[in-house]
Write a structure and sequence with these properties.
The protein is of the alpha/beta class. It is 41% helix and 23% strand. The protein has a six-stranded mixed β-sheet, with helices on both faces. It has a four-stranded antiparallel β-sheet with strand order 2-1-4-5.
């Protein structure tokens, strides 16, 4: 990709007595059998991903799949055993501790499942804390902190302590704090998984609203495919430390790489994922259409119109050319198939 902000190549994180030596002995490509025989644990195994500027790149998998370890390797909170990580063309694995401190202070934002707010500080002081670490005076740091608090919908709560806030409000404080430095890349590790379902959905909506405003490059970790579909532009699915497949939600639903990915997508909301382009058929000679649907529209957006019509609808590409049609039978296969999987 020419627009990649973060590039990870053949990344490994091995646990054992001499992980770097072991990796070197096997030319950085040890087999699973060799890893097991030597008594090592591969938390991340030969992982390669690229994250484009401005996209939400989701990394997901079951507990123990390596997703959280991978994101910590990408930010060098954990030292990788081998491979490469480049951010904006800078080799992060060659960065000095001083370089990393500067990167984290100025270019990286991080939000984790546990909010880690400082309990003795107010909302305002929690949000402003990264700027205080930079050495900014109170007046210099409070103005942007108040703006960020308003952005995440907590205006009026500036002087509350964390224990006076709900779980969702505490997470908003964590998000505001991570954004106060205007980072170039934002790492979120299961940020909403500790929240109740209704609050979680509210926070997902808030997160998407913020992204529409800020257009950040985001690496988002989750174990929930529904959440991945809601927030992600592309998704990487991990298993046993390895990246099994990377693609859009539609890619994963239409062509899962293996049974593991297929199981993840089995109950996915297909009407919200599949587009007209994905389900269209060829136009028959002389076939009349009732109207036109954009190729990128999701089935759920046009299903009612097509189902109510005896004629198919044309599918138009970005240039307005008709490239296929969708009819009642095609739409019903998607909708009925979704019901049968429930």
């Amino acid at each position: 990709m020419t627009n990649a902000a973060l590039v990870c190549r053949n990344l490994w994180k091995l646990y054992g007595p001499d992980p770097k030596g072991f990796l070197s002995q096997h030319a950085s490509q040890p087999s699973d059998a060799a890893i097991k025989a030597a008594g090592y644990v591969a938390a991340v195994a030969d992982a390669s991903i690229e994250v484009e500027r401005g996209e939400i790149f989701v990394i997901m998998g079951l507990s123990g799949s390596g997703k959280s370890t991978l994101v910590r390797c990408l930010s060098r909170l954990i030292e990788p055993t081998g491979g490469s990580v480049a951010f904006d063309g800078v080799d992060l694995l060659a960065a000095t501790p001083e370089d990393l401190i500067e990167l984290r202070r100025h270019k990286m934002g991080m939000v984790f499942q546990h909010f880690a707010l400082l309990p003795h500080l107010s909302v305002l002081d929690n949000v402003a804390f990264p700027l205080e670490i930079r050495g900014l005076g109170r007046r210099e740091r409070e103005k942007p902190a108040r703006e960020m608090i308003e952005l995440v919908g907590l205006a009026g709560r500036e002087h509350n302590l964390p224990h006076q806030l709900s779980g969702g409000q505490q997470q908003r404080v964590g998000i505001a704090r991570s954004l106060i430095t205007n980072p170039d890349i934002w790492f979120l590790d299961e940020p909403f998984s500790a929240l109740d379902p209704l609050i979680r959905r509210e926070m997902q909506n808030e997160f998407m609203r913020l992204q529409d405003t800020l257009h950040k490059t985001i690496v988002f970790i989750t174990h929930d495919f529904d959440e991945a579909v809601r927030v992600g532009d592309r998704i990487a699915i991990m298993r046993d430390g390895r990246v099994v497949q990377v693609g859009t939600p539609e890619d994963l639903v239409r062509a899962p790489a293996d049974a593991y990915v297929a199981e993840f997508t089995r109950e996915a909301p297909r009407s919200k994922i599949l587009s007209a382009r994905a389900i269209m058929r060829d136009v028959k000679a002389g076939e009349a259409v009732a109207g036109t649907i954009g190729a990128g529209m999701k089935v759920g957006e046009f299903a009612a119109r097509v189902e109510a019509s005896d004629l198919p609808f044309g599918v138009a590409d970005e240039a307005g050319r008709q490239i296929g049609v969708v009819d009642r039978q095609t739409v019903m296969r998607v909708l009925v198939g979704a019901e049968e999987r429930q």
